[in-house]
Amino acid sequence: LAANGRYLNALAQVDDPTDAIRTLDRITTRKQIAPKRTAKAFNPVARDEVQIFRALLAGQHMIRGFSNPDIRQILKDSPHLNGISDPKRRSAKTTRILNRCHAHGLIAKIPHSRRWRVTKHGRITMSAAVQLRDVQFPVFHSMAAA
Questions:
Q1: Looking at 64-68, 79-83, 104-108, which range is the least confident one?
Q2: Residues 6 or more apart whose Cβ sits within 8 Å of residue 1
Q3: CA-to-CA distance for 133 and 33, rounded, in angstroms?
Q4: Domains in the chain, ordered, with CATH?
Q5: Is the pLDDT confidence value at 90 over 80?
Q6: CA angle 38, 44, 49 (to 5 degrees)
Q7: CA distance 28 to 50
């Protein structure tokens, strides 16, 4: 009986990764946004996706949120907007990026404005994706190569 208690105490101290895995699965699968409409999944280690995450997590957006032109300015040299010269098409592409992030619950609209804010789920998920690409993956790669 005492051994069972010690075993349960040991299990209670083990980190449970199921919430993190569930969060990762939530953004890496296609999201149903309407009948016959889905939002593309994210690849949290892809360079292009992490550029979007960095743009949304930029510190200047913490107080007032961000708008389409704010994100467009940050992503102007990224592969997402690089080949598009028409300003209306650049704006439309940025809108599609924001709608995709909204479908996955990473950002939310600020009511009665043209601005967006990063949700708590979005802040946790996007920060983890940036951390995974920049810090964790190189460490794991070097360990596997050794």
A1: 79-83
A2: none
A3: 28
A4: 2-145 (1.10.10)
A5: yes
A6: 75
A7: 13
DSSP one-letter string for 13-76: HS--THHHHHHHHHHSS-EEEETTEEEPPP-TT-HHHHHHHHHHH-GGGTTT-B-HHHHHHHTT
Contact 28, 43 (CB under 8 A): yes
Average pLDDT over residues 9-23: 70
Tokens read off for 130: 């940036």
- For the record, the structure tokens of 64 come out as 């007032």
Q: 3-state DSSP helix/strand/coil percent for the chain, to nearest 5?
A: 60, 10, 30
> Length of the chain, please?
146
